[in-house]
UniProtKB/TrEMBL annotation, chains A, B:
Role noted for this protein: Catalyzes the attachment of proline to tRNA(Pro) in a two-step reaction: proline is first activated by ATP to form Pro-AMP and then transferred to the acceptor end of tRNA(Pro).
Main location: cytoplasm
Gene symbol of the encoding locus: proS
Protein name: Proline--tRNA ligase
Reactions that this protein is recorded to catalyse: tRNA(Pro) + L-proline + ATP = L-prolyl-tRNA(Pro) + AMP + diphosphate
Protein localization: Cytoplasm
Species per Swiss-Prot/TrEMBL record: Thermogladius calderae (strain DSM 22663 / VKM B-2946 / 1633)
Superkingdom assignment: Archaea
């Protein structure tokens, strides 16, 4: 049996995270290419459930799925110069097959702007082709020079959901940015993840973009975790790829573009944020198993097992993801421990008493509270219980983030955590802040999950009067 | 408006197919890497629906989804020698990034045996780890030397669903082969595709395998289309990757393995087989739009439009994939033509008469039969209508396949079609058959959708008395 060493995730996050990924069957990091990992069925199921939520939100707002090839001819990739500079160095290159060298090198997509906009040039003609809203779910490849971490920073991102849009006016593009932010807020909220939204400083903006917003949360070691980016591309790619439409005034005009993406890192964040000393903790919406049924029976008590099977049937018929643990090698106590480690949010215990009285005992993973209810109330009670668990997880996650967010003049400054500082928006002051706090300015805070003290309370390290908050951190 | 030249798919399949893919918004072949294509949302939606059917069948039979990396170190790829020989030449190679050369070359997966079994070596320990049944849905890459054709033969296969299994005994592996065949039969049957199942001859077997079965149908030009393969890998990979388990008798034993895969080619087959002179024809189960609502109204007849909206709502609430065409630029006749071209299996016409009487007129795409029913019977009538359409499409497809399957002594031998011949199973006779008919032996027919005449009726071109049927053809 996998025994989780009772590590505190705050004092030793890397070890805790490593153990959890292995013992809960999320991924296997023993694949012989650095930064590339194998997803095991249990972990992948959780990821698929999370992706399903985002895809539903994208489809409901009129984004359509498309698929663009993995390999990009170097000549197409090089069309936008800043982009080439930003991504070129970390791009994997195919020069041929085992027996043949190609005339032109093919780059393995690190992100799909160039491959997509090459085709949009053929598709966008008139105003009625706009807005164009597409997404795809693909694997992308980046030869990261930063240290790799399973799921959080990998060289093959296997579940990148990237959306791209084109619009007739800057105003429409800005509306689209708002829609994208709203989609991501709903998505991260559904995963019970608290986040800052920051606008990145110009010198740290996505290659080829006007500006971008990042959603940032904190890992238990205080490092920042970027959950998603929303990018206003302006007209730079439109000009590089000649994306023009015939407007109603008879003029050909360049489109305005946005893009936004989320990867499997979001599941890494779910694991890091919601886990605890008893292991993984999946919010019910993404739990591959929402309820595990553990029957407590001795040899010959077939009626208990039959009743447990009936309970399983009731749950499955209601669309609940349930599992019946009939393993006879291990004790019920062992099973409780095992399924808690795997993050199953609720357990149903069935013994002699439950079988005789046609009841079930529901146990919450978060506080181990028990409740015995008649079988016919099981599904409704579970749904209420999940709401309570969600509320609890959400508030616990926010407490964690508060603990990991340092307001320098209010608490002792430690190495560990994101830092909020007063900022005037200049590069000079950003550099000063970075020097003082030993962390990078991630951007201007445009939305905070935590109430921040008034700017006037902060120490002013800028030349001008600060008019905004900066978020500083070291990111994965 | 895309105007489909009224090409007969049997007399000029390449042109018909090319026009259909473009005009019905399935894929765009103008991507600047040969053999790599872009999937447009309408085509991709149909593919996702088809994939969903197969994934459901795989999950119901206990296959679990996993994900293994795209890049395979050359040393791992080379472990099974026949496999290396079979796939090595057409494998894309990554030697580094734009700025760095790697120590070891990485191969881009042409299929996932090696990457997967490398990990299985770490996972399979005892009898209770077996059977292991996994699948993944991935993009795979093969530098095909055969001529490429959109969807049917490409260099990036973007939707390969490959299943892999490991078993304690050969008998269990053979049972698994039966299950796989049954899954594929259900899958292709649901797409209304008729097929031969052939057992490939030893000299044409999947690299590293014992034997394999192929599902084969015919394109309208008479070429064979392989829909899927089911492969008994025996113990060759198990030996190459040292996949052993501790059996109950205390001995370590090699596992027996199978694998089976289907790609997006199946959607190419759906398009090729079911399309006709009016364009695409999607079976209702994979139609991105199952019903298009075309209101027939003049300016000011807002009540007709309102009624059409109500009909749309009724359909959506019943889970029907419906679209309301409110475009005012085009006539209803134009719209009928357009949506037929896009393969929508049923249309609902709504005019003054329907609006006044609270009815709808349903039109079938296959025979243009009309039926007017009260609104409250719409959904039920549609479901009946789809069953009728399915029956019709299925029998039409079988007629097509009959027409494209030549029994030499019964009909004049043309260039066009698959050929059935009597065979003794020897390589000598296979070569003779290939010489006489100018086609390749695809294998021994183990299941035929068409009743075949007794072997004794066939001309005997073998030395021995033929005891089986061979299927010959030229494949995509």
């Amino acid at each position: 049996m996998p025994v989780l060493s009772k590590i505190d995730k705050f004092s030793n996050f890397p070890e805790w995270y490593h153990d959890i990924l292995r013992d809960a069957d999320i991924v296997d990091i023993r694949y012989p290419v650095k930064g590339m990992i194998v997803w095991r069925p249990y972990g992948l199921k959780a990821l698929r459930l999370a992706q399903g939520i985002l895809i539903r939100l994208l489809e409901e707002t009129g984004h359509q799925e498309a698929y663009f090839p993995t390999f990009i001819p170097e000549s197409v990739f090089s069309k936008e110069k800043d982009f080439l500079e930003g991504f070129g160095g970390e791009t994997f290159v195919v020069e041929g097959t085992m027996s043949k060298k190609f005339n032109e090198r093919l780059l393995v997509r690190p992100t799909s702007e160039t491959v997509m906009y090459y085709m949009w040039n053929l598709w966008i003609k008139g105003r009625k082709d706009l807005p164009l809203k597409m997404y795809q779910m693909v694997n992308v490849f980046r030869y990261e020079t930063k240290m790799t971490h399973p799921i959080l920073r990998v060289r093959e991102i296997m579940g990148f959901i990237e959306a791209h849009t084109a619009h007739a006016t800057m105003q429409e593009a800005e509306e689209q940015i708002k829609e994208a932010i709203s989609i991501y807020k709903q998505f991260f909220d559904s995963l019970l993840l608290p986040y800052f939204i920051v606008k990145t400083p110009p010198w740290d903006t996505f290659a080829g973009a006007e500006y971008n917003y990042d959603f940032v949360t904190a890992a238990p070691d205080g490092k920042g975790l970027e959950l998603g980016s929303v990018i206003n591309l302006g007209q730079r790619f439109a000009k590089a790829f000649d994306l023009r439409f015939l407007d109603s005034d008879g003029q050909y005009k360049f489109v305005y573009q946005t893009c936004y993406g989320v990867s499997e890192r979001v599941l890494g964040a779910v694991i890091a944020v919601h886990g605890d000393e008893r292991g993984l903790f999946f919010p019910p919406v993404v739990a591959p198993i929402q309820v595990v049924i553990v029957p407590i029976f001795r040899e010959g008590e077939e009626d208990v097992v039959d009743y447990a099977r009936k309970v399983l049937k009731v749950l499955k018929e209601s669309g609940v993801r349930a599992h019946l643990d009939l393993d006879t090698e291990h004790s019920p106590g062992w099973k409780y421990y095992y399924w808690e480690l795997k993050g199953v949010p609720t357990r149903v215990e069935i013994g002699r008493r439950e079988t005789s009285s046609n009841t079930v005992t529901i146990v919450r993973r978060d506080n181990l509270e028990k409740k015995t209810v008649p079988l016919e109330k099981l599904v409704d009670t579970l749904k209420e219980t999940w709401l309570q668990i969600e509320t609890h997880l959400k508030s616990r996650a926010l407490d964690y983030l508060k603990k990991l967010t340092i307001i320098p003049h209010r608490q002792p400054q430690t190495e560990k955590g994101l830092i909020v500082a007063a900022w005037d928006g200049t590069k000079a002051c950003a550099e000063r802040l970075e020097q003082v706090y030993g962390k990078n300015v991630l951007g201007e805070i445009v939305e905070s999950p935590i109430e921040l003290p008034p700017l006037s309370e902060f120490e002013n390290l800028c030349e001008k009067q600060p008019d905004r908050y900066a978020l500083l951190g070291v990111t994965y």
